[in-house]
Design brief:
- 41% of the residues lie in helices and 14% in strands.
- It is an alpha/beta fold.
- The chain has one domain: Rossmann fold (3-Layer(aba) Sandwich), CATH 3.40.50.2300.
- The chain has a four-stranded parallel beta sheet with strand order 2-1-3-4, with helices on both faces.
- Strand 1, helix 1 and strand 2 form a beta-alpha-beta unit.
- The two termini are 15 Å apart.
- The relative contact order is 0.21.
Length: 150
């Protein structure tokens, strides 16, 4: 079983959306994948995803209401095979916790799955409008399809 972790800053917008998209793909395609999400900060521990993220996901028939934010820990390197981060700031915050090459090899920017070696970032929609949430959904969905089905 592949174990995948999605990581953003607060674990209320991008990473729970990625987790929800992956959960839907896992269910639809009977994939042997376990997925979770976390944030590099502890700002929103135990909170539900942002209401705009929940609404946007719901419009795509994805239910995020049971997800709760948690903070990334050094133990996640041992629990997960692949760790996908949403932007370069998240990447820096995760990589600073690595203590060996094996852990380092597990971490990548999410959009490298759909845009190999381009190091593109998923923008944080938190301070934007609803169009930003849909744009983020499309970016994450495309990358998750590549991760799950390729």
């Amino acid at each position: 079983m592949r174990k995948i972790l999605m990581v953003c800053l607060g674990n209320i917008c991008r990473s729970p959306l990625a987790e929800g998209i992956m959960l839907k793909l896992i269910s639809e395609h009977q994939l042997d994948i376990q997925v979770d999400s976390a944030g590099t900060s502890g700002y929103h521990i135990d909170e539900a995803p942002d209401k705009r993220t929940i609404l946007n996901a719901y419009e795509h028939k994805i239910d995020l209401t049971d997800l709760r934010a948690r903070q990334f820990t050094i133990h996640d390197f041992d629990r997960f095979d692949e760790i996908y981060v949403m932007d370069k700031s998240n990447l820096k915050n995760v990589l600073v916790l690595t203590n060996n090459e094996h852990h380092l090899s597990k971490v990548d920017l999410l959009l490298n799955a759909s845009h190999p070696n381009q190091n593109k970032e998923v923008p944080d929609p938190y301070f934007g409008d609803e169009k930003g949430f849909e744009h983020v959904f499309n970016l994450i969905h495309h990358a998750c399809l590549k991760i799950a089905l390729d």
